Amino acid sequence: MIRLLRRRPAPNAHVVRPPGPRLLRRIALRFFQSPPRAWRTLPGVRAPIILAFILPLAWYAFGLLPAFSASGECCGPTRLPWLPAAFHGEDLVDAPLLVVGPRHVTVDGVLVAETPAIVEAGEPPPLDALRTLLVNKKELWQQIRPDVPFPGEILIAAAQDLPAHAVVRVMASAAAAGYPRTSIMIQKLSSPLR
Question: What residues form the membrane-spanning segments (predicted)?
Fold first, then answer.
């Protein structure tokens, strides 16, 4: 009779915890439930939420956002220079962009030459790197679109305070590479009142 009243041992008695759903069970996630007291600035509002709204506004107000560059440079060679303004202009075309800035000459963001070397030289140095890069772009165009004639157009964005001979030298190198049609990039103004 004593044997009948005794409970039989559980089949999982040797296991520390009985088997069952264990995914994300008994894990201490207290840092999600109650943040440190230092984060609480206003009742019910936490500082990271406030900073998420204030920091972008402060960046824009102090001019940090337009000058930010992921490469670490404040003003990289690919930034557009201050362009001259004009009343009558046309829309942009799909062509390689040649930027002649105060410090660098770039083609589609690739550094080709230094502008001070072009400006200060009495006899302007030959821009072989510019010519080579433009010839490669022309050959690539002809390989991709063999049935379409090459337009030979290039878009030049030149800073308005550069001497004219520096821009003319760059235009001559582009024409020698097979780009005879040049378009100068400007800031388009609204039409004047008469």
Answer: 47-68
- 136: amino acid identity, one letter: N
Please determine, looking at this structure, whether the domain spanning 85-187 carries the CATH number 3.30.420.
yes
Integer Cα distance of 186 and 99 in angstroms: 12
Tell me the domain boundaries of the chain: 23-68, 85-187
Which residues is 187 bridged to in the sheet?
A: 85
Q: Token pair for residue 49?
A: 């939420």
Phi, psi of 153 (to 5 degrees): -110, 140
Strands 181-184 and 104-107: unpaired
Give me the numbers of helices (H) and strands (E) for the chain, helices first please: 6, 9
CB 98, CB 154: distance < 8 Å? yes
pLDDT digits (tens, 9 = 90+) for 87-106: 666 766 778 888 888 888 88
Strand 97-100 vs strand 104-107: parallel, antiparallel, or unpaired?
A: antiparallel
Least Cα distance to 84 among 154, 164, 171 occurs for 164
* Model pTM above 0.70: no
